[in-house]
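Quick question, first post here. What does this chain look like in 3D?
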Amino acid sequence: MTYTTPASVDTDDTEDLFTEHDTSATDADRPIRQGDVLEFLHCKDEFPLDDEKTLGVVVTANCDLAYGKNWNLITYVPAVPVDSYVKQFVIPKEITSQLSQTERAIQRLFRNSSTSDQLDRAFEMLRLGYSAEEISVLLPPNSREKNDLIAGIRVLQALQTSLRELALCSHPGPFCRCLLAHCRRLDKARPAKKSADELLRANVRERLKRFPGDALYVHKPSPHHGTGYVALLRLVTSIHESAVSAKPINESPATEARRVAQLNTLFCHRIVQQMAQVFTDIGLPEDYETAREIQLTKISESWEY
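> Answer (accepted):
Ran it through. Tokens below.
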């Protein structure tokens, strides 16, 4: 059986519903500018689960590019397929959230049974690998919470195992197999009306309705990339301009990325604006300002000509 992630959708019916790229701005002689969509020719190490489909959206200001004030570097934010975004960012966060909820539920069981003093010992035994039945003896004999505690610990152990296994996955295939094992493990530990798979898919769908401020969904960033992408606005990085080709065909062995599209003006400005909001300037301590002035004065006084 092959597990497909909750974000996997059939885009055939929506492929032409909306496009963010400007089909009229693909002149190969035009220099690289802000809003250009770059396609990388090799897998990005930061995103091992995207199956070599990482894109980049140029955010360097056009004036910097025109007047050479960018130090020969093109700054961009990566954009990964939504499927990769779900695997690498959403699912681990969802499982971690379930883990925290389960821990809090176990803590309440100890407080309700008036054995809060045993709580630290219970989690220490959990870390040492004790079974749920062995940990449950910390509750009073014939405690009504004992069965709930055993079930909660089994769920907690299943979630911990899943997080460890998923963190080791560096390719889509093993990740999906680990996710399938996670759902089976959780179903065994926590029988419920809805399977772990159904619950995970529902929770991921809810998370995808509310993207965080440092991520922007782009339905179709280029004519050749229409499966849905997520621009990661916090992960600003750079590539040397000599490694970027403005032409859709790679003509140089030194080329690492090539331009495949240009976002229309509205989405170009939106990405830059939202990225700026992520890095909104905050005040620094007065001690920093004082120390900076003293240190820079000493440095300037020690300059030798």
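The chain is about 45% helix and 10% strand.
Strands lie at 36-40, 55-58, 73-81, 215-218, 229-232, 237-240, 244-245, 257-262.
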